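Bug report (template v2)

What were you trying to do?
Predict the complex of my protein with glutamine.

What happened?
Run completed; filing so the output is reviewed.

Input:
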Amino acid sequence: SSSSSTAKTLKIGSSADFAPFEFQGADSNEYQGFDMDLIRAIGKEMGTDVEINNIAFDGLIPALQSGNIDIAISGMSITDERKQQVGFSDPYYDSGLTIAVKADNNDINSFADLKGKKIAVQIGTTGAEEAKKIPDAQVKEMNSSADTFLELKAGNVDAVVNDKPVNDYYMVKNSDNTVKRVGEKLTSESYGIAVKKDNTKLVGELNAALKKLKENGEYNKIYKKWFGTEP
Ligand code: GLN
């Protein structure tokens, strides 16, 4: 049953460089990941088609504001600053920042140890903001989170500051043991689905669909597919 009066296709924006939330497979262009499965299930629940557009993370809020997309789902943390610019659904995933370093690095064991270090982050993210607060750190802002790991592997930076689930997934997928995650989470952040500010109708529809998917077990199924456990 459709809970939506919206018949058109919803235009979704996502920065498809953030496995396991959104990425393109090595041999297919299809968008995959937790967010992608979730938004397709939400679209189904709302009775609308979804069209996914790959947009750099720092371009998502501008794309919502200009009306180029209806919805952004991209591991986007709900922050007070962003709440001034866009509307958010209820939180759908609990996250937070962690550090990754090269496997043979034994000096960096916590955020305090990042003082004066070279750090790679993805531009426009909460990780970038937190890294900039670290005294004397040289922060290198990359276009994608994948690029932050390349910088680390190349030895151009000492550390990467990135979302915990993304760092963890990278460690599992790139099992060559050249990088490791260190320390505890620095922040507690919740991901939300973003829409144009004041589009309360769409927020209501997203929240209703999200609630339904949590009740009928579909959310848990998608969660288990990507994280191996129930939430
Ligand atoms: N959760 C972080 C943020 O919202 C990173 C998101 C991302 O890189 N896709 O800034």
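What did the reviewer find?
Residues 15, 18, 57, 74-77, 95, 122, 125-126, 145, 163, 189 surround glutamine (CB under 6 Å). Residues 45 and 212 are 8 Å apart (CA to CA).
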